[in-house]
Design brief:
333 residues, 7 strands, binds S-adenosylmethionine, 14 helices, seven-stranded mixed β-sheet
């Protein structure tokens, strides 16, 4: 049953794939940048594993508040930066030994009804990780029906996108859609009921809107590019993704950037002729083991990929070659 909106005090986020991450990047030393601080689980583990310093970035500063009690214990080994990882190279004062990105929202953000990320609890239709820019309500109420359908289809892989967009357009003509449960009900009204084991009918639509509100794919492409600029030769880039489009982008980025002239690439043949900028460390993505799945069911769709920077010069990345969904103008925010 749905809970009512309240300002909640969330349980701390449990770091995902931390054991395999630490095993893959050992021994940890030098300066690292954690682009997704959250509750600080990765940052703390990096500092305890031997990082000399960690620059910890998050667009949502609420995690910094929660971490205050332990963060001060690391003194000037830890610097907290409110910002987006898309421009992570602007927060550094020299080449980095490693960058970690643990994408998506934290369980603290998901569990706070007032943030509007969850279709299970009533809250304002907000979904912003930071506190600037348009909200999900702005998007749902102001985007034209076709463009809204494109967001649901391309960002959330929702096959019933046209039907849902039509239902949203009909409902908002009666009254603006301002809350999570009203939107969830509209979606439920036009989709078949979920069978046991299937996800809630609103899952993909909520994910698509959250991705659009926070420009998550644009941030990922920018962040990969910025990490390439910021890492020193031998530096590690580790990325944890939570759904197929994100994982495809990271996988293709690593493939393109590690390609050597002879192999070619059907995505960007002209880039394949250049010297490799990364060496792939994880041939296959690493997922949670049985122990982690039992401890933290939210880890089930997580995938970790790691690559090591070479000395080849950094350069721009073709978004389309990464498989990043690129919307028509009207659907962009
Ligand atoms: C899955 S959580 C990270 C959890 C963290 N690894 C931990 O152990 O606690 C993702 C965090 O990244 C932040 N985030 C997402 N996209 C971001 C971006 N583009 N720039 C900066 N922070 C971002 C979110 O606000 C959230 O706090």
């Amino acid at each position: 049953m749905a809970a009512t909106a309240r300002v909640s005090s969330p349980d701390p986020h449990i770091p995902v794939l931390l054991r395999p991450l630490l095993a893959e990047i050992a021994p940890v030393s030098g300066v690292w940048l954690d682009g997704t601080f959250g509750a600080g689980g990765y940052t703390r583990a990096l500092l305890d594993a031997g990082a000399k310093r960690v620059i910890a970035v998050d667009r949502d500063p609420s995690g910094f508040e929660l971490a205050r009690s332990w963060a001060s214990g690391y003194g000037d080994r830890l610097r907290l930066v409110e910002g987006t990882f898309g421009e992570l190279d602007q927060y550094v004062d020299g080449p980095l030994d490693g960058v970690v990105l643990d994408l998506g929202v934290s369980s603290m953000q998901l569990d706070q009804a007032e943030r509007g990320f969850s279709f299970m609890v009533e809250g304002p239709l907000d979904m912003r990780m930071g506190d600037t820019g348009p909200t999900a309500a702005d998007l749902v109420n102001q985007t034209d029906e076709g463009a809204l359908a494109d967001i649901l289809y391309y960002y959330g892989e929702e096959r019933a996108s046209r039907r849902i967009a039509r239902a949203i357009a009909r409902a908002r003509a009666e009254a603006p859609i301002e809350t999570t449960l009203r939107l969830a009900k509209i979606i439920e009204g036009v989709l078949p009921r979920a069978k046991p084991g299937q996800s809630h009918p609103a899952t993909r639509s909520f994910q698509a809107l959250r991705i659009a509100v926070n420009d998550e794919y644009g941030q990922l492409a920018d962040g990969l590019e910025a990490a390439e600029r910021a890492l020193k030769p031998g530096g590690k880039l580790a990325v944890v993704t939570f759904h197929s489009i994100e994982d495809r982008m990271v996988k293709r980025f690593f493939q393109l950037r590690s390609a050597t002239g002879g192999q070619g690439s059907r995505y960007a043949p002209e880039q394949a002729a250049e010297a490799p900028r990364f060496r792939i460390q994880t041939r296959r993505a690493i997922g949670p083991d049985d122990r982690e799945l039992a401890e933290n069911p939210r880890s089930r769709s997580a995938k970790l990929r790691i690559a090591t920077r070479t000395c080849a010069e950094a350069g721009p990345v073709d978004r389309a070659a990464l498989g990043m969904p690129i919307l028509k103008k009207g659907a962009r925010h």
